[in-house]
Amino acid sequence: MNQSNQLHQIIQDIQSIIESKTINDEQKDIKIREIYDEQKQKDKDELRKLFNKDAFKLIQKYVYDCRSGIEKIQALINPPILAISTVVVYTHENNIKIDYPNRKRRRLSPGGQDEEVKEASLARKNEGCLIRCNRGDELFRWVLNKKGLTSTSIQNDIISWQKAWRKHHQRLGLFEEYWISQGKRSVALLNFEDLELMIANFTSQLEAKDATNANQANCRSALSTLFQRQGFKKEKIDGVVLQQIMKKPQAGMNKPIKEEQIWNYDQLLKYIKDKSDQKMQLSEIEFLVHRSIVLKLPKECWKVKTAMFKGLDTSFTVIFRPLEDLSICPTQRLSFQMNKKKIKDEKLPICWLVSKKRAASQEETSKAVHIVMKICKIPTGYTVTSNRSSSMTKSTDQGPNKTEINRASRHRKGSQAVVNHYDTNLNDKIIT
């Protein structure tokens, strides 16, 4: 039996096992393993000849899992095609397309054309990417070996790259494909004089093929690193021409600069004024609710005492008692809210420093300002508050005018820049 007949016999046996309905999946796995082990015990070298080199390592994975299907096995056995998209010629019989024996598919759209573009599967795309990475790895090792480095030194150099090596060796494989397409060999890289011209032509071709800006920059970085390992100077690799060509990809990779609004002190005061106006606009009943008194009674009961109307003898008392269903129990919610605040903190100031066990000074109350800014939906940063020697509250106590407050608070990076350059940048009298 020749190799072709033996190959089809193995496929038919596996296919019959997978399509069988009399045995379960575990029995299918056992029978497929027996077929594979039988072929492997006969002649391992003959089995390697039967399958191609790349498929031999992957065939065992898919043969051991019968649920992956016969199509994956046949895709591995067929010779690999490196192109991403290829033109495949099919023969048609009675408006039925035949792409491999023993299986027919109805054509999606009838027509007289016998050629169509068929996109490669994900497995073949990954295989092409793996081959490109291997070529880049071989090129890098070969160049450094010609330089005189040992295999151990080359491996240590690759390890020092860490995660960057994953993308660099793929870009080197892409460059090798370009270099071979130009009719040149790898030996020419050892004595090539104009390295800047080589990288410029390669990146220009990538741009013509609609490569991304990051891909062009990574290719340039990988080639520059390779040539620097060979001993070439950076000035010879990265010249004026290459820098001019790479301006467009680098500009495309930069993040757009957004304009930042300058928030002044008046906006915070406006928020406080709005809150005060909202409080005055409350109805009489709502205002009285805000003045309610909540007391805790025995047996997990709570008493809420409020007033319905202004005047004497208008008090109204409601007692909440616990319920079996805690999800709708009002006392559970009140207990949870009151327990969040410890008894020892009830009489302490709002801005209390726990670590220092004292009230916060005017310079240390920026946290309260940040809370108000957060409610106002103002980004908290150095534009309004900073941790320098003079805070906004202290500046207000000194009685400056509006212009001086804006100068002291509008600086982008207040603490660092003001300490060093406040005399020339801000020119204010507050920071003293």
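^ that was protein a. below is b, sequence first then the tokens
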Amino acid sequence: MGERKGVNKYYPPDFNPEKHGSLNRYHHSHPLRERARKLSQGILVIRFEMPYNIWCDGCKNHIGMGVRYNAEKKKVGNYYTTPIYRFRMKCHLCINYIEMQTDPANCDYVIVSGAQRKEERWDMADNEQVLTTEHEKKQKLETDAMFRLEHGEADRSTLKKALPTLSHIQEAQSAWKDDFALNSMLRKRFRLSPDLRTPQGHCCQRPPWLTLFWKYLVELCHRESGLGGV
């Protein structure tokens, strides 16, 4: 689309590049066309994708995460140097309008009006997840030596509690660390196991440790014994 617009432009006979500069100025139009019809009010029409599941207050229908709308985007403030944008869109199932805006402090979107959020969030502290450091706490860590010392003690205490779990995870994963040795051991068991080489009746007995390539091995057993394919 961008390439087509760039090469298939008609220049009228009275077009003067020194006077008009571009075709948009010649036609008194904006490059974004209808999307910029309210640009004088600070509003730009964009394609907005619903960030989470909501219920519309107008029709009470569920709107799933990922549904897209033509939304009016407008800057309504700042969080430090990060702009806060508000999005206004019409529900595709009724005449109700939904307004949402960015929340840079929590890296999220908040509903201003027109809908209710389906609550699927959880507390990171209760879930024992790694918590992000807030901006105020970062500044305090840089300027307050006593607070930095107390924060370091708390971090060391948290690490001490988590060490047994981390050690258990590392120990569980260490069994699969040397994949070459495991593969060699598995191939050796293929060669030495009699159940894989001698068919019993019309099928081979499946070892409990075997999960991959079973169909191929059964066909190989039948082929070697002259029984044909399966």
